[in-house]
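Subject: design request, 113 residues
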């Protein structure tokens, strides 16, 4: 999951095409231990449903998506894909991972409500 968040953050910060970011992710040293099939499906879902996912998130945030940090924007989109397209992943695991990533990478003054 951290790999997809890192890739989404790259996409938010630079004008790099999604396919190019995915290739960079595949080539990274620490990706070898990841479940490539799972992360590919997550990445495809997140990039394909980007606008729809932001539309779902926006009403639940105190700030507009454009005002969120890249990690605050990326992680909820990944979680949305997991919750809607990956019934094999327990929702409690999805939520726990979201909290842990927010603790590790989120802004100290993040205000998503």
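Subject: RE: design request

Done. Sequence follows.
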């Amino acid at each position: 999951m951290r790999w997809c968040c890192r890739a989404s953050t790259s996409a938010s910060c630079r004008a790099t095409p999604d396919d190019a970011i995915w290739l960079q992710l595949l080539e990274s040293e620490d990706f070898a231990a990841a479940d490539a099939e799972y992360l590919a499906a997550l990445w495809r879902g997140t990039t394909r449903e980007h606008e729809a996912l932001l539309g779902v998130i926006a009403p639940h945030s105190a700030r507009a998506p454009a005002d969120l940090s890249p990690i605050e924007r990326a992680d909820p989109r990944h979680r949305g894909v997991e919750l809607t397209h990956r019934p094999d992943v327990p929702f409690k695991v999805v939520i726990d991972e979201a909290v842990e990533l927010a603790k590790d990478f989120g802004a100290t003054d993040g205000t998503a409500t």
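Residues 97 and 103 are 10 Å apart (CA to CA).
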